[in-house]
Amino acid sequence: NAGVTQTPKFQVLKTGQSMTLQCAQDMNHNSMYWYRQDPGMGLRLIYYSASEGTTDKGEVPNGYNVSRLNKREFSLRLESAAPSQTSVYFCASRGAPGRGGYTFGSGTRLTVV
Amino acid sequence: GIQVEQSPPDLILQEGANSTLRCNFSDSVNNLQWFHQNPWGQLINLFYIPSGTKQNGRLSATTVATERYSLLYISSSQTTDSGVYFCAVPNRDDKIIFGKGTRLHILP
């Protein structure tokens, strides 16, 4: 099925460990996004990529890095995980403005202990 | 940047009741979406509705762009409608901004 695929679905890290969250879309969308969702906070934008080769910071970028590897893939990296990064992470993509809305992946539940 | 406010924050209804959820936004937009986050955490796209009215079964949505609000109507509520409903709009940099959501509980 066409859509946005995120891996892994669940992850537990120790403080200081690193990991990369993977995201891929097969809808030929230009824009891709990473969000985190915390209880009572809604979804907050971490980073986004308007097109292949470009990335930009969102509302809460500290502690994260991203890579837009190609048009399909947009990864999020935690270099040194902290308990404050315990959250649910969502990847999303969107086509050209005015040509439809956003499609979200199923999320990654990350716990940092 | 653009502000998105949703009301009410919480809503508890008996199965079969109707409800109206509201989303106000502080600037003109060319895109607005309603999402349902189910109890398992999945974000499901309900409507892409920058203006006008759309209907899908028991759900419908209306956006009045000139007055900067959108409404989501749920008729004949079912327990499977429970969850959190978000509206989202893009800011001037095409970043999606979400409201804080309306948490809906449908009681059997």
3D structure, described in words:
The complex is a heterodimer of chains A (113) and B (108). Chain A has 113 residues and is an all-beta fold. Chain A is built from no helices and 11 strands. In chain A, strands 2, 4, 5, 6, 9, 10 and 11 form a 7-stranded mixed sheet that branches. The radius of gyration of chain A is 13 Å and the shape is globular. With 108 residues, chain B is an all-beta fold. The radius of gyration of chain B is 13 Å and the shape is globular. Chain B has no helices and 11 strands. The mean pLDDT of chain B is 93. The chains are: A mainly beta (113), B mainly beta (108). At the A-B interface, strand 4, strand 5, strand 9 and strand 10 of A face strand 5, strand 9 and strand 10 of B.
Compact description:
The complex is a heterodimer of chains A (113) and B (108). Chain A is mostly beta strands.
Write the layout of secondary structure elements.
The complex is a heterodimer of chains A (113) and B (108).
Chain A: E1 4-7, E2 10-13, E3 19-25, E4 31-38, E5 42-49, E6 56-57, E7 64-68, E8 74-78, E9 87-94, E10 102-104, E11 108-112
Parallel strand pairs in A: 2-11
Antiparallel strand pairs in A: 1-3, 3-8, 4-5, 4-9, 5-6, 7-8, 9-10, 9-11
Chain B: E1 4-7, E2 10-14, E3 19-25, E4 33-37, E5 43-48, E6 52-56, E7 59-64, E8 69-74, E9 83-90, E10 96-98, E11 102-107
Summarize the helix and strand pattern of chain B as letters.
EEEEEEEEEEE
Q: Describe the global form of chain B.
A: globular
Count of runs of 4 or more consecutive helical residues of chain A: 0
* Largest sheet: number of strands, sense, barrel closure of chain B: 6 strands, mixed
SSE order of chain A = EEEEEEEEEEE
The biggest sheet of chain A amounts to: 7 strands, mixed
How much helix, percentage-wise, in residues of chain A?
A: under 10%
Arithmetic mean of pLDDT of chain A: 92
Distance from N terminus to C terminus of chain B (CA atoms, Å) equals 41 Å
Considering residues with a beta carbon less than 8 A from a beta carbon on another chain, report the largest interface and each chain's count.
A-B, 27 and 22 residues
pLDDT < 50 runs, ≥5 residues of chain B: none
Derived from helix and strand composition plus strand pairing, the structural class of chain B reads: mainly beta
Instruction: Tell me the fraction of residues in β-strands of chain A, as a range.
Output: over 45%
**How widely separated are the two ends of chain A?**
35 Å
* Strand segment count of chain B: 11
Helix and strand composition category of chain A:
mainly beta
Oligomer: heterodimer
Strand content of chain B: over 45%
What do the pLDDT scores of chain B average to?
93
User: In DSSP terms, counting alpha (H) and pi (I) runs of 4 or more, how many helices of chain B?
Assistant: 0
Rg value of chain B: 13 Å
